[in-house]
């Protein structure tokens, strides 16, 4: 009976694993995606992302910055941007630009003082919108500034898009 149960469990495990992870789909118009990550907050990850961008801009590369920190978006303040993104005729959001860098952040979509208490599906839905419902145009690099730690956002991003490189601060 025990070996029969083990076989059933192994068969079930094999079926689950055969489904695999979601297929990684590139972001339209983006050649390479780089991710900025950290194990904890307050280590200068967003500042480092911004400085990397300035290097890219000086090298005449087209770059974009996606602030994936749903809970504490800092890119609007760091990049000196305010306002809401405009919508294209295809109902995609246009990133706001400053310093030659196209930027998108949850901070553009909510009030600055509004608390965000989201979990699970709500977070993954917001990340999916930031990844798939933005008209980036043609970019050489899109740098994604992740929230600190490991969790839903990091898993959603790494499972859904091909990543060319990661910087860990």
From TrEMBL:
What InterPro entries does this protein's entry cite? Mrp-like_CS, Mrp/NBP35_ATP-bd, NUBPL-like, P-loop_NTPase, YlxH/NBP35
| The keyword Iron is annotated on this UniProt entry | yes
In the UniProt record, which is one GO cellular component term?
mitochondrion
State the source organism's domain of life. Answer: Eukaryota
User: Could you tell me the keywords of this UniProt record?
Assistant: 4Fe-4S, ATP-binding, Iron, Iron-sulfur, Metal-binding, Nucleotide-binding
Q: Which GO terms describe its molecular function?
A: 4 iron, 4 sulfur cluster binding; ATP binding; ATP-dependent FeS chaperone activity; metal ion binding
**Record-level GO BP terms:** iron-sulfur cluster assembly; mitochondrial respiratory chain complex I assembly
Cross-referenced Pfam families: ParA
To which protein family does this belong? Belongs to the Mrp/NBP35 ATP-binding proteins family.
| This protein's name | NUBPL protein
Q: Which organism is the protein's source?
A: Chauna torquata (Southern screamer)
Show the taxonomic lineage: Eukaryota, Metazoa, Chordata, Craniata, Vertebrata
């Amino acid at each position: 009976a025990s070996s029969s149960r083990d076989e059933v469990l192994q068969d079930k495990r094999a079926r689950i694993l055969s489904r695999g992870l979601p297929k990684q789909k590139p972001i339209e118009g983006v050649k390479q995606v780089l991710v900025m990550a950290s194990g904890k907050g307050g280590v200068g990850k967003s500042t480092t992302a911004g400085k990397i961008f300035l290097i890219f801009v000086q090298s005449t590369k087209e770059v974009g910055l996606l602030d994936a920190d749903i809970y504490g978006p800092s890119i609007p303040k760091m990049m000196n941007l305010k306002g809401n993104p405009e919508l294209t005729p295809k109902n995609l959001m246009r990133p706001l630009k400053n310093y030659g860098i196209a930027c998108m952040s949850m901070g553009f979509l909510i009030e600055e003082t509004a608390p965000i208490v989201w979990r699970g599906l709500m977070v993954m839905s917001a990340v999916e919108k930031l990844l798939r419902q933005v008209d980036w145009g043609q970019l050489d690099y899109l740098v994604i500034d992740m929230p600190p730690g490991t969790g839903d956002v990091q898993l959603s991003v790494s499972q859904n898009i091909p990543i060319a490189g990661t910087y860990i601060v």
